[in-house]
Amino acid sequence: MKDSTRRPGRRRATVAGVATTVVLLAGCAEELPTPEPDEPVAGPALTAAQQTRVVEEVAGSLTKASENEKPDQLRPRVEGPALEVRRTQIEVAKKSGDDSLVTRIPTELEAMILPTTESWPRVSFTITQPTENLEVPRLVAYQQDSARDNYKLWSWVQLIPGTTLPNFADPEAIGSDAVAPDDDSLRATPRQALSQYADLVAKGPDDSEHAGAFELPGESTDLVKRVQKDASSVRGADAFKEADGEYKIAFASRDDQVVAVRTSDGGAVVMGALDGNIRVTVEEDGEIGPLTPSQKTLMGDADNTDQLYVEYTDQVALYVPPAGSEEPIRPLGYSHVSTAAANDIPGERNTDRKKDDG
Amino acid sequence: MLQRILGVVLVLAGLGAIAFGVATATVLRESDSVVATARPAGDGTLVVTDPGVLGLVDSEVTVTASVPEGQEVAVVVGREVDVAGWLGEDPYTRVTGLSDWETLSTEQVAGAADEEAESSEDGEGGAEAEPPPNPAGSDMWDTELVDAEQVSLRWTDRPGRWVLLAAATGAAPAEESEGEDAEAAEADEAAPAEAPTLELTWDRDVSTPLLWPAVGVGGVLLIIGLVLLAMSRRTTRSRKRRTAGATAGAASPTISSSGTTSPGTGTPSGTSPFGPAVGAGAGAAAARSGGTWPGAVAASPNAPHDDGTAPAAEDAPTQGTDPQDAAGGTDQVPVAGRFRRRTRLRRDADPADAQDAPVPAPEPSAGGAPVPAPAPALPTAPASSADTAGSDDTAARPLTRRELRRREEERKAAEQSGMGGMGRALRALTGQTPVVPRPGGTSSPSAADPGAAQSAADRRASAWRETWGFGGTTAAGTPTSDDDTSDEDKR
Fold first, then answer.
1. B179 touches chain A (CB under 8 A)
2. Contact A13 B308 (CB under 8 A)
3. A30 inside 8 A of chain B by CB
4. Phi and psi (nearest 5°) for B387?
5. Tens digits of per-residue pLDDT, A267-322?
């Protein structure tokens, strides 16, 4: 009797003791959480909102520099070929008092091409709406050189009317990969494509060996047609012929200023800068003056001589199809801006370092 | 005895477990917000959280970064790659997580450009002191805040590896530097910037996982313990009834003597021959109690088990002997009775009640303080013990607590009735208001008024009227307008 009473009692006491201990111990501490970082999310390195902000910042910088006529104020937000061109445009506008030739870059966007690049430099692109006065949309490249730099306007081109742009990956969700300047997954590497295009611009479709690789727009004007037309209009002039004039064109791409972004079909849109110049000479007692108001402004007070030298910094955009494609390379847009003019032809020219003039 | 000890232990354990469970949900409950601070020491003016730290406790976090007075602090949130790229080779402090609930663990990351940073921190050493790196203004950040001394930023975690970068950016610029250009913002010659102190605050959903388990376990323990106690008590009761029955019927001394000797010997053998008598005694007691406690009969089969235990044997004689004590019983009994009285006063009081139920007078003799007596080891069980105690002793109607209290008051009143001052003091203690009209009321000038026998409020009103010179008629007209007149007065 006694034993049967005691044993359950002890058991009960043990159970109670154990239960109490467990409860007390369990209550002692809630575990400290440890960081559990998410997997990196693949996507653009820049959000649409950030891109919009970049566009606005850049536009603000452009406007301010133009209004103050201080090209140095471009520096925080403009670089590369865009800086050269813009600087010239502002200086010309300042001297001539006419800013109509300063390229407007609308902030209203038609599309964005956002980068997926995790390292630097990173390049994003935008396609703007037509400007207020219905100029063609611009394709604009913004580049971030390093993590501590901001995106800066690197290059822009006016799109050739009638050009269809290739498709890009969804900018918000996926983003577009950058393409290296020497990427060989394309019909031609971006660098090669630019170089060939420069040759085509300088020599014209009839004389360039690369003409076959390109499909130039029929109706609309691209850089090739523009340069060749300017040349032929001068060359064709009677007075020029009488003066035994000579009109030489040289164009060369800059190997270090190439950006490219992958398109949906595996091709790439390549933007780059071309150095170009024209050298016009007439007979010794002849006289050749600047051909455009801009050149006139750039020449300033210099007298006309029998020589004219004009330098261009041209920004171009090409579509390069993927390797193996039968599609030709297409020019998408260009910006043709004279950056210097002189009344004598210098021995050293902006195209020298690349190749001999044609 | 063992059973009772076990019961008490279980009840205590149960109560403890319940109290603990409740405490985890109340006193011990963790604060609803977690505030963790990082105080970086070392080189660099930058503090960076590891990915995942921002969402460590809750997806919503409030970050406060502060720097000494006169300096400026910038806080940005960006993707890990971007921040890592931005940091480059600068030294910085990494926040790696929580080291405890109030402290963030940090880790110093020495930059590759350490010497440069140092020399630039020396200030005058270089030709131009480089301003501390300022992340503000970069296109890459998702969120960015800059302010003097302190910045608070609220961040809701989202997919991806988001990190926070806080930077002391040197002296707050006296004037806005142009644009948000980082380079343009130049630090003055003020004290070199130190890494900001970072404080992360999360709201926390505090769960109380132990509340119900603990309460449940405690409840079970409590019930088991109570059952054990009840069983032991039942045994006690039956033993006592048997004893009482024996006493009432000029009990044979053998029972009481064996009952009193059994605790002394404490040997089971002393009680075992006693067993059969218990059954009979219990039956007799139950019969005597008019069948109000039939459970005792039903439970009587259990009684033999319990009888074997020491407590039952101990209890039975004492309770039985107490009435004997009051009635001037044998010599042996008072000793045990006194002992009992000290330990189990409740037991003593109740039999007294049972015997002299209608008359409160004997109660004092039963003990000076029966009321607080119920088993001190059972704080939660007074009701049950009182009920059972009352029910089994009065055998007709359980004494409610209120009745007990009333009796106690009456008893006290009776005790103190001789001393008027004490009685007043007692009244004051009990908060009773004397109903007797004050003699001053009649002697006051307003005694002539018809409202002489008015309530205290009226008397106050009339006193007020008198003070302010109002006529007695007015007072008679507005006997209860104490508040009204005061309002008028204000007007």
1. yes
2. no
3. yes
4. -60, -50
5. 999 999 999 999 999 988 888 888 898 999 999 888 889 999 999 999 999 999 99
